[in-house]
Amino acid sequence: MTTDSLAADPLLPGLRAPGNRVSRRAISYWTARAAVSGGSVVLGELVLAALNGFSAIWRLAIVATAVVVGLHAVIMPRWRYRVHRWEVTDQALYTRSGWFSVHWRIAPISRIQTIDSHRSVGERIFGLANVTATTASAAGPVRIHALDRQLADRLLDQLAVATGQTPGDAT
Amino acid sequence: MTAPEVTGGPDEAALVPAQAATGAPRGVSGDGRGPGPASPSGFTGATSGWRRLSRRSMVVRPLTDLARLLPLLAGLVILHARTGGGLMWGVAAAALAVITGLVHWATTRYLITDERVYLRRGLLNQKTLSVARDRIRTVDVTAHLLHRVLGVCRVSIGTGRNDYRSGESFHLDGVTRSDAESLRLTLLSSVREAAVAGPVAAEPRPVAESEPAAAEPEPVAAEPDAADAGPEIVRWRIGWLRFAPLTTTGLVVLGVLFGSVIQITNATNINLAATGPVQRVVADFATLDVLQRVLVGGAVAVCGYVLVAMAGYLAVFWNFQLAERGADTLRVTRGLLSLRATTISRGRLRGVEISEPILLRAARGARCIAIATGLRVGRGAEREGSVLLPPAPRDVARHVATAVLGLPEHVCSGPLVRHGPAARRRRFVRALAGATLIVATIWVVAWTQHGPAWVRFASLALLPAAALVAADRYRSLGHRLADGWLVTRTGSLARRRTIISTDAIIGWRIHQTWFQRRQGLVTLTATTAAGQQHYSVRDVPTAEGLALATAATGDLLVPFLRAPSRRR
Q: Are B533 and A111 in contact (CB under 8 A)?
């Protein structure tokens, strides 16, 4: 499960990067998601502009938004794919996520209370799933995004077994 | 009658619908009316064990409901005065309130077994909540004015959950004082057990009707009972009243007052500005010149605010007392009209927060809040459950913090590790960028709307003010790890020092924005099951932050650190 786990984390020297990347299909999924949400903004602007007779300001605003949305849809998924990583060891769950801002999360296996998996419509289309492990802290859920579905199922089983072996939740 | 609702959230652990709980209750109910056919079978049959609220609670509910409806009712009565329908509405509402009270009393029942506490309520949507006794962290007894007149109180049971939906909080509204006291003792004995993980309760567990220990009705929270009252840690002094106007609590009280006045005048259709006294005041005010108006208006506002803030402080914190009860529980009692007694298990206490809003800090005052599992933080009235000290002198706050946690003095007051020049730069950049944006907006607006020039120039004062705040924010920023306690401090206008036990840390979050990355800073957040659930060390240099986390939680972080030999 650790492919290049000994490499230093280029984002945060001192910490090493979690061992595994997420599914390659995540790029398409994130692109589609960004395109849909960005597209709906542009569509809303088009409707408003149509009501105002497509004035020059509106046309400018629509072009500007479209450029930003397009850049976001192209850059964000690739950037995000390079950042998102995860790793499960005997002791802890370790993830890195984000793109412009980066989050590292570490939760000890012994403190994990529930493990669940969520598949949104979008994720199902792309054959992806995420795995969420919650701890007794409301601020502490660790989520692994955009995993391959079979891998997510295996991971759920593995985590369920691992957490079952350590009683108590330190509350 | 519908089936009992399944109320459990996905992440819930302690508070579960009883039918999902393991082990049926020993005592079970059934008095003819019993639960519906779809109810779990373990809940029908014998009659022992289940207890009702006090009969007097039948009065509490209707009266509180009616009081809440009063503005609306008054409006209806006046609105329909001509048609004569107003009285009808009033009677209907009163009847409805009385019926609700009856139904509430008739349908609410609770049961205490060796393992769990069960609470059942609701007529159509019958809910049965249960909580494992070893998960009970706090017992909170409150009595507002009406409760006190009737000699009843409300008992809230706090478990580790921090996100109840409203229907799921475990409380009994309207038990007699003696029952409340016995409940507190009973449930607390298991708290103690859980805290020390002892095998059997040393003291008898008073359950149900056979309750000898607290037979006499004891005024809740008025006096500590001599039986298990431990040494007092701190007691309220009248002189602390001087800190009342220095927090924003007064503003909240003022807002509530204002809101209810508006509501009443709206509902009753009274035009307040048209009444005699108000008109006279306005007329007098009109005779003054501008300077006098400003002076008089300011003086009235300040005096009014101070009075309201002091009244609010008195109402909430009158006779405040923090004392040890028994070996390992703390008890906070306070209140002038509404009495409140909160019992916090020391085993659940994970730290304290000392907060110093800027005015309070200027007067060398501070507040103290408990960080404990099962005590919610930051939700209106519930927040007050965790108060360990109202606004009071700073030395007292430190004394409280050291006393309840058994801390060495230097952890509470000692110097902190500063976060260095990059963190300082970030404070200034953020404050000045925000201020510049506001100033620019004011200039643009004032320019385009042809506003007076002095507005534009006055707005420039924001810049030095922002710089001052930034400097103070940097001075306040710091962290420290000492004797198994993680101390962090942030903020300027609302500065707070949090002290949490490293044992309570159950995970880490490291956050780095693109800007922080360029400056080599991270925000390190410890997650915990207590208090606000997460406590941050902001903008700490990367290496220092990692070292801190590693030192605090032993080997949790070590596997993820880069081996020194692998340095690029």
A: no
